[in-house]
Amino acid sequence: MATIRRRGATWQVQVRRQGHPTLSRTFRLKADAEQWARQKEAEIDRGELPVDTRLRRSHTLAQLLERYAVTVIPRKRGAHRERYMRVILRHPLSRLSLHRLTPAEIAKYRDERLAVVTSATVQRELAIVRHCLQVARNEWGFVLPSNPVDQVKLPPPNNPRERRASADELERLLDACEAKRLRRRAGVSGLRFHDLRHEAVSRFFEKGLNMPEVAAISGHRDPRMLMRYTHPKAEAIAAKL
Fold first, then answer.
1. In this structure, are strands 2-7 and 10-15 parallel, antiparallel, or unpaired?
2. How do residues 111-121 score in pLDDT, each as one tens digit?
């Protein structure tokens, strides 16, 4: 904000904005000082003036994320954010200063994570980084030229799986109890452990449970996500007709 003071026969104006060097000038008329102050504030708002990079150079992404974990995450529902946060904090990306946190570094993180986790997980992790930087810009006084996550193409969402276990496959899975070699020993192909969740939710619906009842069991809060886990078999539907 601008401060205007009278100094003898002149008017001195100072424009201070966090993240920018202080601007100062002296005028003979107060009206000229006020006009100059408005002009400089408008130039700062448009990003036309140099910024003070000391704050960006002295703070890392990890420092912002730790503050975000204390002040923002507790207000959000779901413990999964804390799990994603721990993953990000263990990655070298978090040790970069904000000055070095470029879209290229975000893209590098995206590609490294896609090699070991699903695209949905990468999307959630980057959503945390994006929102953290947004809060830092809007509420914590960090002057960032842009949000680097917004300049990176996010991976496409995972293709929803419709694979369901047959009764025979479930029987063979139960017979082969060694977890690491379960599918190979059972002779079941194309079935993931995550598909068993699909199977359970689908069977709940087939037994006549309604959506609120199934959601209470599965823990889903979004009905759209719950429907992705539901793939009733045609014979089960025909039996009800």
1. antiparallel
2. 999 999 989 89
